[in-house]
Amino acid sequence: MRVFATIQICTILFFAPGPATSSLADERAQSFDKDPGWEGINNRILAPRKVRQDFGYSPTNHAGLAAGEIGGFITPAAEPAYYGKRISPSSFADTLSASGTLICTGRKFHALIGFFNSKTVNEWRTPNTIALRVQGRGNCFYAYLEYTTQRWRAGGDSPQGFTLRDPSTGKRKMREFTLGEKHSWSLEYDPRGNNGAGSVAARIDGEEAVCHLDPSHKSDGASFNRFGLLNIVKSVDDGGELWLDGIAVGGDRENFDRDPRWEGFQNRREYTTSDIRPHFDFGYSRTNFAGGKAAGEMGGLVFRGDGRYKEKMACYGDRLEALTLDKPLRAAGKVALRRGVSDSTVLIGFYHSADSMRIYDAQDAGTPPGFLGAAIEGPSSEGFFLYPACHLQFSSPRDGRRNDPPRILPDGTSHTWALDYDPSGSNGLGEITITMDGKSARLAIQPGDRSAGIRFNRFGIITTRIDGNAQRVYFDDLSYTFRQN
Question: Which of 175, 214, 247, 435 would be a feasible disulfide site paired with 162, CB 3.0-4.6 Å?
Fold first, then answer.
C-alpha cells in the first residue's frame, strides 16, 4: 500500500516543470516538462550508417531452372523490410507448409524465410512467425528454425537443429551449408505434433531440423497473413544476396515466370539509420510515449554495454545525496517498451557514478556493481519481464526473474511501475519489490551486502556490462528517493 500512496502523491506534482521535492522530504518528482540537466555519459553516440534493401521479384535466374525468382540484397536493420505473399489468415491451429529452392551468394546476410504477420514486423524475435532463419558467415551459411508467439515468447531448434557431430571432439556443431550452390528446402508446421502442442520441421537437402512448441506458447496464440522473405529486425549489420525459386505455399506453387505481385514493404530503398550497435541514444526526449501528463520524458535506444571498454558503457541519471541500504529507497512512474530485441536489457534504478561505471577486463556479470533497481529483459522463451535486480558486491549479482515477475510487452503500452527497497524485509536482510500494474515480484538481498558499504549517488538508466542488442523504452512522471533523513 505504501508504494501506491507514493505514486498518487507524486502525480499531483507532475504538472510543475522541472525537478520538484515531493511532500515526502526524501523524494523528488520529475515530469521532464523541460530538460532536467541530468548527467549523461556516452548516452548519445550518433553516427548514421547507410542501409540498402533491394530484394523482391527479379527476372534473373540464380535459384531455379528458368528466368524469374525472388530475392536480392537484404540487410539486417532496425527498420523492417519484407516481400511476402498474402495467405489466408492462419494460426497455431492450422497446418502450414512451404518449400522451394535456395541459393545464397552473399558472404554476409541474415534473413527469415517463413510465415509472418505484416502488422507485427517490428523486432527480432519477430512476433507471429514460424520461420527458417539463414545467416551468412563468410564461406558458408547456417540455418536455424524458430517461432514466436503473438506475446513475443519464442523457441527454436529443439530437440534437433541443423547440426552434425564433430569427429575430433565428439560434440555437435552447426552444419555449414555451401554458398553459391542450390539447396532444396521445406518448412512445415503440424498443430497435432508434440502431443498436440505443435511442432515445426524444416529440411535442407534432406537434412532435418525439428522444433517443438512449448505447450504454453501454443496457448499464447499467433496469427499469420503472409509468407515470404524478411530481414532480421535488430540493429544494422552487413547485408548480402540470397535467392528463392520454385516456391510452393500449401498447394499454391509459384514459378515466378512473371511478376507474382507479392506485397513489398520497404524492400527497395536506401536510407540512413542511427540504430547501430552499440551506439546509445537515450536521455531526455521531447516525446510522450510513456503516457506522462505532457510531452517530455526519459529514454530512447538502450543497447547492452560492455564493461571492458569505457566508451561502451553509458548512463543517464539524476544526482543524489549519498544513499545507503540502511534506509528505504523508492521510485515510481510510467514506462512504455516500444521495441525489444532478443538478448537485450535495460536497467533503471539507483547506482554509483564511479563504482557502477568502473572498467575492468572480466565479464563475470551483466549487472554493474553498485546497482539496485529494475531490469527489463527476457529470456526469449518468455518474452520480456520487469523484475527486481541488484549487484551489491562484485561477486553477487542477483535478479528476480524466477519469482513470477510482471511481463511487459514491446508494444508501446503505458504501464505504472514502482520500486520499493525495504531494509527490514526478508527477516532483516533487505528486500526489493518491483510492481507493475498491480503485479509484484520480490528479491531478497544477500547476507553481508548491508555491511559492504554500498553507496548510491545517481538515479536513472545505466547499461549492462555484457554487450548485446537494444530496446527502445521510455519513462515519465518519475518520483524517487534523493536523500535519506
Answer: 175
Measured CA to CA in angstroms, residue 47 lies from 44, 126, 278, 454, 473 at distances of 10, 26, 11, 37, 20
User: How far is residue 118 from each of residues 81, 84, 271, measured CA to CA in Å?
Assistant: 10, 8, 21
CA 437 to chain centre: 21
Indicate the burial class of 453 (C-beta count within 10 angstroms; 0-12, 13-18, 19 or more). exposed
How many CA atoms are closer than 13 Å to the CA of 97, on its beta-carbon side? 10
Distances (CA, A) of 154 to 86, 204, 336, 378: 23, 22, 21, 10
Compute CA distances 150 → 25, 147, 339, whole Å: 44, 10, 14
315 close to 463: Cβ distance less than 8 angstroms:
yes
The stretch 94-117 carries a mean pLDDT of 96
288: three-class secondary structure by DSSP:
coil
pLDDT digits (tens, 9 = 90+) for 177-231: 999 999 999 999 999 999 999 999 999 999 999 999 999 999 999 999 999 999 9
pLDDT at 469: 97
CA angle in degrees (0–180, nearest 5) for 401-406-409: 105
Kindly report the pTM of this predicted structure.
Answer: 0.92
